[in-house]
Every structure is written in C-alpha cells, then in structure tokens.
Design brief:
alpha+beta; Rossmann fold; Elongation Factor Tu (Ef-tu), domain 3; eight-stranded antiparallel sheet; seven-stranded mixed sheet; 6 helices
C-alpha cells in the first residue's frame, strides 16, 4: 500500500523522519512517497492546491497524509476521508476541500478511536501521533468506520470554480482568481476547460489582470506559433510576451517563456482575474 506525505515541515527538523517512523512502526511494509514538505508554513490553501494537483497521479487505494496544521492541539478535529478511489488523513481545516470537490462518494470520519493513536499524543505533533499511525493501520486493511463516526460539517475553503457574471449576448464574462504561483512564476488561475476552450482565444477571448490584457494562447511554454501578438500593455517592451496556457493540473495559467509572469504582472495569490470569451 502506498502512503504519500504532504506537509509544511521542511527538511531541516526531525518532523518528516518521525512521521515516517510512526507509519513504519505500524506497517513496516508500507511504501512511503513524499509529495512535498515545502508548503509555506501554515498555508492551508497552498497545501490544498498542491494536494489537488498531485493526488490522482497515484494508484487507486493510495492513502494521502496531509499535514498543514496551524490549529494542532486546538479543538479542530482530526479526519479520515474515504472516496471511491483514495483515502486522505489530516486536520479538519479545509486542507481537503479541493479534492472533496472533485472526488465522488466522499465519506468523512472524525478520528476518535484512540486505539489507533500512539500511546502518548503530543499536543503539538498530531502528524506523528495521530495521522501517521492511523494511515499505517488503514494500509493494513482496517476499515475506515473503525476509526470514528461519520461527520458532514467538515471545514471547506471557498469553492474553486469561477463565477459567471452578467455579460452581453455575445460574450461570457467570468470572475476568476489566482489560486497558485509556481516556482517558475507561472500564474495558475481557477479557470478550467468547463469555462473556456483554448481555441476561443483565436476568436477574441481575453484575460484581464491588474489592468493588463492577455489575449495570446500557447500550446506549450516555448510555443511561438500562436497569434504572434504581445499583451496589450508591456509584454513586448519587456521582451517577454505574456500568454495563456493549459497547465498540467488542468487549470488555465498565465505564463511567459523563460521568465516569471508573476513578476512581470506583480501578481499575488488571491488576485482577481477576469475572463471574457465569445459565445458560440
């Protein structure tokens, strides 16, 4: 059984090693895979996006342990989430919101059965003392209902989907947002193919962000075969054309070849993006 780990623990301290040790103490044959331990400290939304982008790359039945847990030791609940295809273990703080939006048959259990916890639970390290041993027991075949009772009031972040505004009869207008900026400076929006097909850029679709318009679309980052235009306010002067592209996580990104679109636009997560696309 594969168990993945996603945390904000970093690589300097003992936390990741202790987490793995707690899993292996329950199931020495578990296959542990690190997704990342470099989520910014306490950044639940960043953890939620990264988990969404990575979780379904793994085989059905994988157990995903995610620990970005600024509320550790408080009244926030520990959870086990079972879906048709995967399991998720971690804190009830919205970290699993995005995968729950996408997955089917979501069942959420509050972890209450201390039989599956470490003997001494630290108030500051539930990753090691609750989430890791529960994942280890789950990987050995313990049924989800053995760990606690079903709940339906788990914490949810704001929905990912953009909101359609009132547009004219010839265009659809969407209020979107930046949900992630990757290490290359690519700006990930919450726009999916449900709202837009890439071909619509050839018919006049555009993105507006921070007073700038992007109306170019590319198939890949080094693609020079698009419409050949620069963005409406400065891409040419900077020598770096801004363009839209479908990213690997399934969301529309704003990018610049071999440059940081986020720096060019001074963009930040949570910043609004406006999409206008022509109706068919």
């Amino acid at each position: 059984m594969i168990i993945t780990l996603l945390t904000d623990f970093g690589a300097t301290d003992y936390f990741v090693g202790a987490l793995k040790g707690a899993i292996l103490s329950v199931n020495a044959h578990a296959r542990i895979v690190d997704i990342t331990h470099e989520i910014p400290a306490h950044d639940v939304q960043a953890g939620a996006f990264t988990l969404l982008a990575a979780y379904d790359s793994f085989p059905r039945g994988t157990i995903h342990v995610a620990v970005v847990d600024p509320g550790v030791g408080s009244t926030r609940r520990p959870l086990l989430i079972a879906t048709d295809s995967y399991f998720f273990v971690g804190p009830d703080n919205g970290l699993f919101s995005y995968v729950c939006e996408r997955e089917r048959d979501v069942r959420v259990y509050q972890l209450t059965n201390e039989k599956y916890f470490r003997a001494h639970v630290s108030a500051t390290f539930h990753g090691r003392d609750i989430f890791a041993p529960v994942a280890g027991a789950l990987s050995k075949g313990v049924a989800p209902e053995a760990f606690g009772e079903l709940v339906d009031d788990y914490v949810r972040l704001a929905p990912l989907a953009p909101v359609r505004d009132d547009g004219d009869e010839d265009a659809a207008v969407w209020s979107a947002t930046i949900i992630h900026i990757d290490r290359f400076g690519n700006i990930v929006t919450n726009i999916t193919r449900q709202e837009l097909a890439g071909a619509e850029f050839a018919r006049g679709a555009k993105l507006e962000i921070g007073g700038r318009e992007i109306s170019s679309f590319r198939q890949f980052y080094a693609d020079a075969l698009g419409d050949g235009g620069a963005d409406a306010a400065g891409g040419a002067e900077a020598g770096c054309e801004l363009f839209a592209i479908w990213g690997s996580a399934g969301f529309l990104e704003i990018a610049a070849n071999r440059a940081s679109a986020a720096q060019l636009l001074r963009a930040e997560r949570g910043q609004p993006v406006r999409l206008t696309s022509l109706e068919s």
